[in-house]
Amino acid sequence: MADYQAVMMGSPINLSLSQDNPQRAREVFQLIAQQEALLTVNRPDSLLMKVNRAAGQHPVVVPNALFQLVSLAHDVSLLPGSLFNLAIGPLVKTWRIGFSGQRPPPSDQIDKALALIDPQDIELDPDSRTLFLRKPGMEIDLGAIAKGYIADKVCQYLQAQQEPYALINLGGNIHTLSRPEEHPWQIGLRKPFGGRQTLSARLAISGRSVVTSGIYERYFLYQQRCYHHILDSRTGYPLDNDIISVTVISESSLIGDIYSTLLYGMGVEQSLAWLAHHPELEAVMITRDNQLICSSQHHFQCHVLDSNQ
Ligand code: ADP
Ligand code: MG
Question: Of 33, 197, 198, 300, which has the fewest CB atoms closer than 10 Å, so is most exposed?
Answer without folding.
Answer: 197
